[in-house]
Automatic annotation (TrEMBL):
<keyword id="KW-0560">Oxidoreductase</keyword>
<protein>
    <submittedName>
        <fullName>FAD-binding protein</fullName>
    </submittedName>
</protein>
<dbReference type="GO" id="GO:0016491">
    <property type="term" value="F:oxidoreductase activity"/>
</dbReference>
<dbReference type="InterPro" id="IPR050315">
    <property type="entry name" value="FAD-oxidoreductase_2"/>
</dbReference>
<dbReference type="InterPro" id="IPR027477">
    <property type="entry name" value="Succ_DH/fumarate_Rdtase_cat_sf"/>
</dbReference>
<dbReference type="Pfam" id="PF00890">
    <property type="entry name" value="FAD_binding_2"/>
</dbReference>
<dbReference type="InterPro" id="IPR036188">
    <property type="entry name" value="FAD/NAD-bd_sf"/>
</dbReference>
<keyword id="KW-0285">Flavoprotein</keyword>
<dbReference type="InterPro" id="IPR003953">
    <property type="entry name" value="FAD-dep_OxRdtase_2_FAD-bd"/>
</dbReference>
<feature type="domain" description="FAD-dependent oxidoreductase 2 FAD-binding">
    <location>
        <begin position="33"/>
        <end position="112"/>
    </location>
</feature>
Amino acid sequence: MPPWTAVRVKVFSKGRPLRIWRKIWAWKPVNWKKTVARYNDLVKAKSDADFGKKAAYMIYPVKSGPFYAFETQVVSLSSIGGVRVNDRLQVTDINAKPVPGLYAVGNVAGGFLQRPLLSAL
């Protein structure tokens, strides 16, 4: 793919500053400003209370670009009996309640058949 083809067809966007994304992706200014401010506060504190990122990696606040964005959807590729996750990729228990602090991604996440009954696979 030629450089930035995805940008030209509006699948992917590149912008500086962040306010450009607000226009392209219809983000609510209050939401993204709070999210960026929250992340920058966590970086300053060297403690990721939201996702548990190690302090050694909490070194870059969000302040200058360019920035890149693309729209995605949470889907499952090939999970048969894997752990079930919600739309925030939080692992859920048998009652579909999030397990605090536990996340899953990739082929182990999805859990369409959380309690599988497999026959001739």
